[in-house]
Amino acid sequence: MMTLVIGVQILALFRERRVWERILAFSSISSKAAVLALAVSVMREDWMIAVVAVIVLSAGNAGIMLLSHLLNRLNVQ
């Protein structure tokens, strides 16, 4: 189910024209992929993958979201 949601988000990514909305879509895809990796790592009992997924969820998306809001404020098309 989560891979279907990621696919829909990728389709929405190609439809957008504005840069900051594309960056937000990339951030959304990244967080969904990290949650998917976290779920798979718990099922496989592989805690190294879980640690990487948690790092991506906590630190990776914050910078992307900050950049997209900055681009939105600057009115970059």
Main traits of this protein?
flat; 3 helices; 77 residues; mainly alpha
Q: What does this entry look like structurally?
A:
Keywords: Membrane, Transmembrane, Transmembrane helix. By secondary structure, the protein is mainly α. It has one domain. Helices cover about 85% and strands about 0% of the residues. It has 3 helices and no strands. Helix 2 packs antiparallel against helix 3. The longest helix is centred in the C-terminal third of the chain and has 27 residues. It starts with a helix and ends with a helix. The mean pLDDT is about 80.
Describe how the helices and strands are arranged.
Layout: H1 2-15, H2 19-44, H3 47-73
Helix pairs in contact: 1-2, 2-3
Please give a quick description of this structure.
With 77 residues, the protein is mainly alpha-helical.
Enumerate the spans where pLDDT stays under 50 for 5 or more consecutive residues. none
Order of helices and strands: HHH
Structural category:
mainly alpha
Mean pLDDT: 80
Helix content: over 70%
Radius of gyration: 14 Å
Counting copies of identical and different chains, the oligomeric state is single chain
Question: How would you describe the shape?
Answer: flat
- Please, how many domains? 1
Keywords: Membrane, Transmembrane, Transmembrane helix
Transmembrane segments: 23-41, 47-71
